[in-house]
Amino acid sequence: MKNQLLSRAAAAACALSVPLSALADTPSTALPAVLLTGNPLRSEPRALPAAVLAGDALLLRRGSSLGETLEGLPGVSSSYFGPNANRPVLRGLDGDRIRVLSNAGASLDASSLSFDHALPLDPLVVERIEVLRGPQALLYGGSALGGVVNAIDGRIPSRASEGLAGAAELRLGGADGERAAAALVEGGGKAWAWHADAFARRTTDLRVPDYLRPDEAGGSTLQGRVLNSASRAQGGALGVSRVGAQGFLGLAWDHYANDYGTVAEEGVQIEMRRDKLALAGEWRDATGFTLRAQAAHTRYQHLELEGGEVGTTFKNRGHDARLELVHPRLALGGGQLEGVAGAQVEQARFEALGEEAFVPGTRTRQRALFLLEQWTLGALQASAGLRAERVNVASAGDAAEVEAPRFGAAQQRRFQPGSRSLGLGWGLAAGWQLKLSSAWSERAPTQYELYADGVHAATAAYERGDTLQKLERGRQLELGLDWQRGGAQFKASAFDARFDNYIALLRSDAPDFEDEEGGSVPVYEFRGVRARLHGIELSAQQAWTQGVQRWKLEAGFDTVRGRNLSRNEALPRLEPWRASLGLQWRSGPWTLSAQATHAARQSRVSADDRPTAAWSRVDLALLHRLQWAGSPGQEAHFFLKVHNLGNRLAYSASSAPTLRSLAPLPGRSLKLGLRWLF
Predict the structure, then answer these.
(1) Backbone dihedral angles phi then psi of residue 194, each to the nearest 5 degrees
(2) For residue range 219-236, what is the model confidence (pLDDT) as tens digits?
(3) d(CA 424, CA 436)
(4) Which among 220, 293, 433, 463 has most CB atoms closer than 10 A?
C-alpha cells in the first residue's frame, strides 16, 4: 500500500516542477493505451482525438498558467494577456467554445468573459491534464464545441492507502522573477485516505527584450518589462475519502487566491478569490455496472481596484452535478460494446457591479442528458455520442435606482442545443493507425453574447450583445494517421470545422462611443456569421541508444486558418504556422535538452487587426536526478532551464490586438529548482 501511495505522490510531484522542454523518459506522444479520465469509459482512445500530459510529460511543460502549460502542443495556443491571464485556445477556438474542467467538473469563474480574467487554477497542484476533442467532448455540453481541457488534481482520493508520502518543490528565477513553493502530503489507514496540499507563488513584472510601449499621448516609450504584470497567488486543499472494495465516496475543500495586475491598465489590480466544496463517488457492482457521481458548490469573486479603490466587482456563484452510469461490456457483432449514459445539471448566478460592468446580473441554468457508446472488434474501434440540453439564460436587467439605464427590463432566453458525433479508429498493419471523427455541435449563447452593453476596458471597445441571438452551430471533421515502430513515431491529422452561425465580436457601423470625459472607443457587436477553420498537425520522434547514452530527436508542425465567410476576411487572433525541433541526451542521472521553435509571420488578419512578425526561440534544460540507496520512494531532482536563449522580441498573434503591443512574450531567463519526493 505504501508503494502505491509513493507512486501517487511521485506523479503528483511531477505537477510540482518546472516545465522542461524535452526531458521525458517516456514520450508524451506515445501511442500505447492511455486512460482518459475525461472519457467516462476510461478506455484507450483509438477513435478519440486526445492528448494527455501526466508524469514526466507534465513535469517538462508546466508553466504558471494553464494556457502557458499547454502552449505549443499541436493545435494548442493561448489567449495571452500577459503572464497572468491565459486560457487555452484549441485550433483557433477559444472562450466559451473551450470547456475548462476541474476533475471533470465545471469551473465557475469569469475567465471566458474577458481576456484579462485569469482561470482560478494553478498548475502547481495539477497531476494530469487531458485535452479532448471529437466524440467525447459532447459529454460536457455546447461550451465544449471546440474541445475540453480537464485538469485533474487528485484532491479527492479514490484508493485506500496506508503510511505517509508526499512531495515538496522550490522554484526560483524566470523572466517573471518567480519565487514559488508547493507541498503535498497523502496518507490513510484501512478504509480511509486523505490528501492535503498548499502552494504559494510570487512574481515581479515580466522581463522582456526592449520594446517600444505605446503611451496615451500617441507616442512610445522604451521598456524592458511588461508593466503591472506582477502577481501573488496562494492556495491549498484538504480532501478525505471512504474507500471500499466496490468504490469510494469523498469530499474536498479548496481555496484559491490570486492578486495580479492587468497589463492593459497600469493602475488596475485584480484580487481574485475562489472557494469550492466538491463531492465525488464511484460504485462498482459484480455484474460490471459502474455508477459515478460528483457535485460541487463554488463561490467566485474578484475585485478590480484602481488606485486602491474598488471599481468593479465580479461574482459567480453556483453549483453543478453530474451522474454517469457505465454498462458492462456486451457481445455485439463479434465485438465488444461498452457505453455510458448520464445526466448533468449546472446553475450559475453571475453579477457585475461597478463602473466597468458591461453585463447585467444573470442566471444561467443548464440541464442535459448524454450517451456515448463504443464498439471494439479487434483492431477496429467505433464510437457514437448524443447529447440533448436545455439552457435558460436570464437577465436581471437594470436596477430600479440606476440613473442611466442600459440593460433594459428583466428578460430571459431559452435554448435547446443538441449534439451528435461519430468516431472511428482502425489499427492497420505494421504499426499504422487510422482515425476519423465527425461531430455536429450546437452552443447556446452566453450572457455577454446576449446582454452585453457597455465599455469593455480589456478590448478597448463598447460591446453590445444581441438578445435575439440564435444557437451557434458547427460541423467538424478530422482525419488522423499514426505510426509507431520501436523508437520511431509519427502522427498526422487534418481537420475542418464549418459554422452556420459563428457568434463573433465584430466592428459595428455605428459611430464611436464617447464617454463623459471626452474619450471615445469603437462599438463592437456580437453577430452570427458563417465561418470556417481548417488546418493540419504533424509530429515525429526518433529515439536511439549508444552504449549508456540515450538520444531522442523530436519535430512538430501545426497550422490553422480561419475565415469569416460572411465578410470574406480572416477570423481574429489565429496563430500562424509553427515548427519545432528538439534534441535530448541522457546518460545516467544527467539529462540535457535543446529545443528550437519558429513561428511564421501572421499576415492573415481581420480588418481591425495588424500582422505579427515572425519569431524564433531556443530553449535549453538540464536535469540531475539523485536517489538514496536503501530509501525507495525518496528522490531529489535538481533542474535548470534557459528560456529564449537569444533574447528575441516576439508577440503572440492570439493576443487581443488592444493588448498585444503592451505585452511581448518573455525574454531570456534562467530558472532553478529543486523537487523532493518522500
Answers:
(1) -135, 160
(2) 889 999 999 999 999 999
(3) 5
(4) 463
- DSSP state, residue 294: E
Rounded Cα distance between 307 and 310, Å, is 8
pLDDT single digits (tens) 244-283: 989 999 999 999 999 999 998 888 999 999 999 999 999 9
The verdict on pTM exceeding 0.90 is no
Kind plus residue range of the DSSP H or E element containing 66: helix 66-70
Among residues 233, 236, 300, 299, the alpha carbon closest in space to that of 260 is found at: 233
In angstroms, rounded to a whole number, what is the distance separating the alpha carbons of residues 357 and 373?
A: 44
Annotate 612-645 with b (16+ C-beta within 10 A) or e (fewer). Answer: beebebbbbbebebeeeeeeebebebebbbbbbe
Question: Residue 82 and residue 62: Cα distance in Å, rounded?
Answer: 17
pLDDT of residue 408: 87
The candidate with the shortest Cα–Cα distance to 656, out of 595, 606, 593, 582, is 606
Pairing of strands 220-225, 88-90: unpaired
Q: Are 635 and 626 in contact (CB under 8 A)?
A: yes
What pLDDT is recorded for position 369? 96
Tell me the average pLDDT across 378-387: 92
- Give the separation between CA 508 and CA 522, rounded to whole angstroms: 8
H or E segment at 12? helix 2-14
Q: Are 663 and 226 in contact (CB under 8 A)?
A: yes
- Residue 30: name the closest of 47, 10, 20, 44 by CA: 44
Query: Which of 47, 49, 52, 24 is closest to 36 using CA atoms?
Result: 52
Residue range 238-251, pLDDT digits in tens: 999 999 989 999 99
The answer to whether the beta carbons of residues 645 and 619 sit under 8 Å apart is yes
For the stretch 622-644, pLDDT in tens is 999 888 766 777 889 898 999 99
Which residue do the cell numbers 469593455 mark? 456
Domains and CATH numbers, the chain: 2-677 (2.40.170.20)
pLDDT (average), residues 99-103: 89
- Reading the block at residue 343, the C-alpha cell is 445526466
State which amino acid sits at residue 77. S
Q: Please spell the DSSP secondary structure of 315-344, one letter per residue.
A: EEEEEEEEEEEEEEEEEETTEEEEEEEEEE
How is residue 31 written as a grid cell?
501511442
- The number of helix segments (H) and strand segments (E) in the chain equals 5, 37
Bridge partners (DSSP) listed for residue 233: 201, 258
